[in-house]
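ping. complex inputs:
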Amino acid sequence: MQIKRKAQAGTMQSSDLMVFLEPADDLSIEIESTVKKQFEHLIRQQIETVLARHQIGSGHIRISDRGALDYAIVARLETGIKRACD
Amino acid sequence: MVVTLFTEKEHQLARALVESHGLRFEQNFDVLLGIFDGNDLIATGARDRNVFKMLCIRSDFQSGSVLGELLTELLNSGAYSGYQSFFIFTRPEHSRSFQQFNFTPLVNHHKVCLLESGNGLKKYLQRHQELVKPGNNGAVVVNCNPFTLGHRYLIEAAAAQVDQLYVFVVREDRSIFPFEVRYRLVREGTADLPNVTILDTSDYAVSNVTFPSYFLKADDDLQSMQMEIDLVLFGKHIAPFFHINKRFIGTEPYCRTTRIYSDTMHRVLASFNIETVQLERKTSKEQAISAFRVREALKKEAFETLTNLVPETTLNFLRSEEGRALRAKLLDYQRRH
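pong. complex structure:
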């Protein structure tokens, strides 16, 4: 799939996250998190897995995380992807 | 549920809530949001371009999820409008609660803090990484509405005192000459100076974010506070990145706002070991050259006078079709600077 338009998903509530997706020529993932020091690598891994599953190789993906668990990250990102792609 | 406040009645409720928190209700915003409990407005917050403001939550609702709900919708509306980073001004005691929402403090002032979400400052600096040169560097921040021989003189004199001079052109478009034109004329007018680098200030110097009152001539207290925020941002984040230890400024005979700014500059930048160097203004016919004089002469189409005030590059522009269109705009309304 390809990111064709700007889309967002999620909330800024505790244990949730917001995902912002935009079309771009290359792939960039930007992570802000209240638990960035401890978990940035795991959040990134999770995002890369979901993107790979949907065969997304380009786009600007920005995450603002407030300590979300894995399944929340997957759910929010998948919703964002569905909104950003056809 | 967060709703958009549209009607005059809803705006009055928001005003009452904002004023009960000791803040000023401002009319200029892109969107004003609120949360109701029955008929009572218990929370409000506004977005003015990329600045969140007037965030107020009635005290008995402050411990819950209300702030998260408001920020979610403010971020959503901002992202849909194309912004990636957002600013918020808040009192020092509230700085921590916004940090819980991934806002990073940029300036901690004893009365007000400026925080940012979205890493805009970091990205701004990264974008200019290749312009960074070692040495004893200097900076000027200019609006150049439009570029005059006075600016040229200031930049030339400043460049002679440092290894590299960074000329920050104010990005904010509140002047007759649009940013694109101001930037281009500065570039063209300094192209022969090898150690001068031109760049834009983005949101990080004398913009709506760091310095709203500059454009409003508001009351002085607010004004000096905003000047300090602007200067701390420069001293703390921008200057060290570019190895800047001198900031140059022209003497200011006309404009009170700009004169107070230069006094504050000496004091604030000294605390970051940055020297403020004041340079005498270049004069023509015993009067300091200013962009204001240029605009007055342009209105009258006094091209003879203009040749004494602006370099050839600017003169050529003023004579061009684009320049003549701006003259018509200039005749339309009167402004400072």
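Chain A has a mean pLDDT of 96.
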